[in-house]
Amino acid sequence: MSTSNQHQFRYTQTPSKVLHLRNLPWECSEEELIELCNPFGKIVNTKCNVGANRNQAFVEFVDLNQAISMVSYYASSSEPAQVRGKTVYIQYSNRHEIVNNKSPGDIPGNVLLVTIEGVEAGDVSIDVIHLVFSAFGFVHKIATFEKTAGFQALIQFTDAETASSAREALDGRSIPRYLLPDHVGSCNLRISYSAHRDLNIKFQSNRSRDYTNPMLPVNHSAMEGAAQPTIGPDGKRREPESNVLLASIENMQYAVTVDVINTVFSAFGTIQKIAMFEKNGQTQALIQYPDVVTAAAAREALEGHCIYDGGYCFQ
After folding, report:
1. How far is CA 94 from the centre of its chain?
2. Beta-bridge mates of residue 209
3. Spatial CA neighbour of 3 closest among 77, 93, 82
4. Domain count of the chain?
5. Which end of the chain is more exposed for a tag (fewer CB within 10 A), N or C?
């Protein structure tokens, strides 16, 4: 069969947003596949090194038209698709999505893999990540990094039950706008389970944090002023100080608004941002001050007290 007929055969298959690539070089990486396919659209999943010779792969586009665009281009081009100088044969797959059986993403575990979409490294600090996820339980460790999927974080909880609660509540949601830099419009959280069970954090930095080991060496050049957990005189773990307070409002008789929160907390200093939300039927608020000292003063004065006599207690 001639080359042109092979192209025509592949082109006339039933289109799918999953493409089957053959004749790839040995141990072709995900990065190489994405580099080949990126000009035609966004890649949402890959499956590499398939087949007895490990020279095949599957690539899934976010949209069917993007896959059609790639197949159509190489079906009519005089220049074949190539990776490392090898001609790659492209055809539609008979599957409509990639299911990586080796992926632990749907197997519950105590470590979550979080992809923060719409941001770059540095847009979301490790302290903000800790603040968001610690609302569901004690966070043991966090490690952040960049991959082809984007800015990601591994977040270790005590057990799978706590991790599952966080995933169920946050997957597909966005970090509150008030906690993001002004230039970031929105960022969605895409959360799956990781195969890791215990993260190996070698030092505290703005990229990794071990909240269970206050004696871990600190990489001062990478801390960017982030506060670390400490042990109090009674031997118990003390919460790390932050310029952002999480206030839970109890015994409410009437609605508490952002203006009310601002009036109460601004008595201690300038408030930069306020975010209010409901969690487990309880009203909570995030209050951001310019510095840790001001936030600590507000917490010491208000914790356990009431906004008005008879109700609205802060915890």
Report:
1. 31
2. 142
3. 77
4. 3
5. N
Alpha helices in 237-306 (DSSP H): 258-265, 292-302
Helix, strand or coil for residue 244? strand
Contacts of 71 (CB under 8 A, 6+ apart): 10, 11, 15, 19, 90, 91, 92
Residue type, 80: P
pTM check: above 0.85:
no
Tell me if 1 is assigned to some domain.
Answer: no
What's the rounded mean pLDDT across residues 189-209?
88
Judgement on whether residues 291 and 257 belong to the same structural domain of the protein: yes
Residue 229 forms part of a structural domain: no
Tokens of 311: 């109700």
Lowest mean pLDDT among 42-51, 215-224, 232-241: 232-241
Find the helix or strand (DSSP H, E) in which 3 lies. Answer: helix 3-11
Judge if 264 and 198 occupy the same domain: no
- Is residue 13 predicted with pLDDT exceeding 90? no
The mean of the pLDDT values for the chain is 80
How far is the C-alpha of 205 from the C-alpha of 115, rounded, in Å?
20
Residue with tokens 């055969």: 9
167 and 264 assigned to the same domain: no
Number of neighbours of residue 153 by Cβ within 10 angstroms: 22
Asked whether residue 152 is domain-assigned, the answer is: yes
Residue after which a domain boundary falls, among 40, 63, 92:
92
The region of weakest confidence among 50-59, 127-136, 249-258, 295-304 is 249-258
